[in-house]
């Protein structure tokens, strides 16, 4: 029975990924507040109290709130999602924060966090673990072992330590309202830009995932080489595959184009 219960829990985590929209309707409708604002007193730990009420940007199709800040040294991003299915999606495939320094809506350096390590998650949720949490989200947060990075000039694509020498940091927590919150920071120098850079930057914010084509009843999760369920970066629990010529597409995310904020702006 214990083994069966553990199997059901793992399947449930993967199944949460199937609770995504089955059409692309409304994927580009986003509500945007101010652009990048000045950061003061930000501690990257997943607690968004030091952001106040500033998470005014929204990625509507994912019900995702976010805001981006900078100081003279770093970029900061905060994201918050209330929906439980979206929270499980984020824990299995990660929030994604991408920056295109040319100000184009094109791929650029990307930080992905958090992603629950599959083996660690199984160990934490094992029936033999006396400290096994009742909430799978808590187990997911306890299973985080790394930050994922892509397209940085001086950093190889893949995992980096949570305690790394690159200055890239991230933290995630469940807040008092039961929302899943993320904070992350990236040094400006890792993006090849300096203090006072005044050209527009293009930012992309999202919970990673795939969107099934409209009206396709045959969409199913499939295991692919190099990834647990075929996620394009080769990690995570969930993803989508097709038995038909119509194929799913990657979640486009919310774009924000803004210059860096000057001090106290």
Supply the helix-strand structural class: alpha+beta
Provide a count of the helices. 4
CATH C-level: Mainly Beta
In helices, the fraction of residues equals: 10-25%
Shape verdict? globular
- Uncertain parts: 4-29, 217-244
CATH architecture: Sandwich
* Gap between N and C termini: 59 Å
Average pLDDT taken over every residue = 81
Give the tally of structural domains.
1
H/E element order: HEEEEEHEEHHEEEEEEEE
Q: From the structure provided, what is the oligomeric state, counting identical versus distinct chains?
A: single chain
Task: Report the major sheet.
Answer: 7 strands, mixed
Count of DSSP E strands? Answer: 15
What percent of residues are in strands? 25-35%
Rg, nearest Å = 18 Å
The CATH topology name reads: Immunoglobulin-like
Task: Provide an overview of this structure.
There is one protein chain. By secondary structure, this protein is an alpha+beta fold. The chain has a single domain, classed as Immunoglobulin-like. Strands 1, 2, 3, 4, 5, 10 and 11 form a 7-stranded mixed sheet that branches. β8 and β9 form a beta hairpin. It is globular. The N and C termini lie far apart (about 60 Å). About 20% of the residues have low confidence.
Throw out a few tags for this protein.
265 residues, alpha+beta, Immunoglobulin-like, seven-stranded mixed beta sheet, 27% strand, globular
Quick description:
The protein is α+β, with helices and mostly antiparallel strands and 265 residues long.
Task: Please render the helix and strand layout as text.
Blueprint: H1 2-15, E1 30-31, E2 37-38, E3 57-59, E4 64-70, E5 74-81, H2 84-93, E6 95-100, E7 110-113, H3 118-124, H4 136-142, E8 146-150, E9 158-161, E10 169-174, E11 180-187, E12 201-207, E13 210-211, E14 249-250, E15 254-258
Parallel strand pairs: 2-4
Antiparallel strand pairs: 1-3, 3-4, 4-5, 5-11, 6-7, 6-12, 7-8, 8-9, 10-11, 12-15, 13-14
């Amino acid at each position: 029975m214990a083994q069966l219960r553990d199997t059901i829990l793992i399947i449930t985590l993967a199944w949460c990924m199937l609770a995504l929209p089955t059409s692309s309707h409304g994927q580009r409708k986003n509500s945007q507040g101010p652009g990048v604002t000045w950061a003061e007193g930000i501690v990257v730990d997943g607690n968004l109290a030091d952001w106040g009420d500033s998470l005014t940007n929204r990625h509507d199709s994912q019900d995702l709130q976010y805001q981006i800040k900078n100081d003279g040294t770093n970029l900061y991003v905060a994201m918050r999602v209330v929906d439980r299915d979206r929270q499980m999606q984020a824990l299995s495939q990660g929030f994604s924060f991408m920056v295109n320094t040319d100000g184009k809506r094109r791929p650029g350096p990307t930080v992905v966090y958090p992603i629950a390590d599959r083996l660690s998650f199984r160990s934490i949720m094992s029936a033999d673990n006396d400290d096994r949490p009742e909430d799978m989200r808590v187990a997911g947060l306890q299973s985080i072992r790394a930050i994922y990075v892509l397209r940085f000039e001086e950093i190889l694509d893949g995992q980096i330590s949570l305690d790394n020498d690159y200055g890239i940091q991230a933290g995630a927590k469940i807040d008092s309202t039961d929302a899943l919150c993320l904070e992350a920071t990236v040094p400006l120098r890792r993006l090849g830009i300096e203090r006072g850079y005044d050209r527009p930057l293009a930012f992309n914010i999202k919970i990673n995932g795939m969107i099934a084509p409209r009206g396709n009843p045959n969409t199913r999760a499939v295991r692919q080489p190099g990834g647990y369920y075929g996620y394009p970066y080769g990690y995570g629990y969930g993803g989508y595959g097709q038995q038909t010529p119509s194929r799913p597409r990657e979640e486009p995310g919310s774009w924000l184009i803004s210059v860096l904020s000057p001090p106290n702006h």
